[in-house]
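Standup notes
- HV: blocked on the assembly model, inputs below
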Amino acid sequence: VRTIIILIAAAAVVVAAGCGGDAGGSSGSSGGKRVVAGFYPLAFVASQVGGGGVRVQDLTPPGTEPHDLEVSPSDVRDVLSADHVLLLGHGFQPQLERAAGKSGKVIRLLDAPGVDPHPSDPHVWLDPVRFAAVATRVGEVLRQPERARTLVARLHALDREFRAGLAHCAGNEIVTSHEAFRYLAERYGLRQVAITGISPEAEPTPAALRRVVDVVRTTHATTVFSEPLVSKRLAQTVANETGAKTDVLDPIEALTSAERARGDDYFDLMRNNLDALRAGLRCR
Ligand SMILES: [Zn+2]
């Protein structure tokens, strides 16, 4: 038994030395690892898990939609010089994925164990349980398993808040402007009815709009949800047509400048979402 323990301890030292050894060469003067993230939720996980040991850069500017992000030449330089590049992959940000290429420092988090994405739906961060699997993977990449476990525990607590908060509701249809809430809906027994598709800028056809209006009427949904970064015109159109009201459900794809100024983070925005859902679905 003693031999095994010693061998494992020796291996751990070698791994730690290897990790520290390459940091000096490629990272900047502050000494920490440089992590580039494709958009806000991944940047949030990287800074939570990395702590003071990493410098995190979010390539999606505040208040900007990350779907189909256009990368500048300076973004490409930042990607190429980073120690780790955190992306979702699966075509969520195709230009960025092409620029990042296939090097070993590029982590495609939709492929992480336990994330289990549906084909073509990237919005896994809106399910706290899947997002916890993302946090665990980032903990491996940044060699911070303890800090990752702390974040995972907070995400599982958030999952319990959603479970309890949505357990007894009069409605279960969430009518949204963009089809971002499938994972959240599946996790908590809700049904998503989306006005547009997976990408928020898509224009709905008149037939799709009529279908949503019909669903709102037949289910007596009280609320049509829009989101902070996209015009609420579509949600307002359906609301006017049906007598429902509008509220905000945030797909948390980027922080607005106001949210940044307030210091809001993923957990604050998810709790705002829970409050909006509880009001819209008349939960007790
Ligand atoms: Zn989206």
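- HV (later): unblocked. The CA atoms of residues 26 and 83 lie 7 Å apart. The two ends are 55 Å apart (CA to CA).
- Next: hand off to the docking folks.
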